[in-house]
Amino acid sequence: MSHKHVPLKARKVSFAWADTPLHWVPGDPFTTHTINVLHLLLPAGERWFVHVYQQVLPYIRDERLREDVIGFIGQEAMHSQAHDEVLPHLRDQGLDPTPYTAQVDWLFEKLLGDRTLPPGRPRRWWLLERVALIAAIEHYTAFLGDWVLNADALDRRGADPTMLDLLRWHGAEEVEHRSVAFDLFQHVDGDYARRVRTWATAFTALVFLWQRGTRFFMANDPTLVDGRATFRDFHRRGRQGLLPSTGAITRSIPGYLSRSYHPSKECSTEQAVAYLAGSPAAVAAVTAEKSRESAA
Predict the structure, then answer these.
(1) What is the rounded average pLDDT of the residues 267-282?
(2) What is the pTM of this model?
(3) How far is CA 55 from its chain centroid?
(4) What are phi and psi of 208, to 5 degrees?
(5) Between the chain's N and C termini, which has fewer beta carbons within 10 Å?
(6) Cβ-based neighbour number of residue 285 at 10 Å
(7) Binning pLDDT at 50, 70 and 90, where does residue 284 land?
């Protein structure tokens, strides 16, 4: 897989949700809601990424890495905003995510937020723990980005094009900046034991939060009488290509834990950049900005 270095920049996007149905994968609320969990986790999670990285900027001694981190911050802030804008649309369709997002906000703002620690080693330890956690999480956001860019089964099933564009625009940027979090961790620390420990924490938390979020959506979907979510449903959709397969998820584990791991060995930067150049939401935003400039 290729990894040509591309200067990172935040891209403006414009999504219109009025015509997106509640079950944007037609006839498949389980796949819809499993992917919808992204809208619950990402706004708070990516705000947390930005907050932590703003604190670590003074420790970066490599100028190109510093520029990459600043570009990463800009992209993550835009991702958080774009997914946050989906939540009012869900409320309008009778599915209020507030009880779940309140718990996610607590996780990132309180449990993983800043702590009152004495300056020096304790404060630096907590900062490095969070930098390592972000590197582990970014391994999986790149994994998901690569998956959705190639998830042709969603197109064949007739998935809503606006939602697919959001997911693929976001996924493409995750692939584009997939090395930044790991390179930053290696730069400021790189301790292998910390990498393994924080991977275990991140993976366990992601699995827990994702299944909990899917069950929340299925249980509160106003169109379902007895909405349930099971691992069997997930495994079956993975075999159909509608969700990441359990085999692919399992194979992602030894990759990250390998001492020779580097994100540049996975995914395709060229594929990501090509999608970003043609993303309908990105093109619409550029066109709207040019129109405003012409009118001015």
Answers:
(1) 94
(2) 0.94
(3) 21
(4) -65, -50
(5) C
(6) 16
(7) confident
